UniProtKB/TrEMBL annotation:
GO terms for biological process: sporulation resulting in formation of a cellular spore. Pfam families: YabP (PF07873). It comes from [Clostridium] hylemonae DSM 15053. InterPro entries: Spore_YabP (IPR012504), Spore_YabP/YqfC (IPR022476), YabP_sf (IPR038705). Signal peptide: none annotated. This is Sporulation protein YabP.
Length: 96
């Protein structure tokens, strides 16, 4: 029996429009989010978005896509992939 499967998107793209909306592809997981910070695990490592009034408007882990909105102040990457809480600990140390 042969099942047709859509390949999971490999690779990562980040599009930011006027620092208000963002499309992120290559997302593996959303680790945490609140109004001031969103932490994503992507194909290219951990990605932290900081700002104000941040929202995850659309999330499709099947497609590996996330739409974000709010006032985006900064975006930072780390090559560390999440292993339990290690990724969050690393970022909390980096951005205190």
């Amino acid at each position: 029996m042969h099942m047709e499967e859509r390949p999971v998107q490999k690779g990562h793209k980040l599009v930011v429009n006027n620092r208000k909306t963002s499309l992120v592809t290559g997302v593996i997981d959303v680790l945490s989010f609140d109004l001031n910070e969103i932490l994503l695990e992507t194909e290219q490592g951990m990605m932290m978005v900081k700002g104000t009034d941040l929202h995850v408007n659309r999330l499709s882990l099947e497609k590996g896509e996330v739409d974000l909105s709010g006032n985006i102040d900064s975006i930072a990457y780390s090559d560390v992939h999440a292993a339990g809480k290690q990724g969050e600990n690393l970022f909390s140390k980096l951005f205190r």
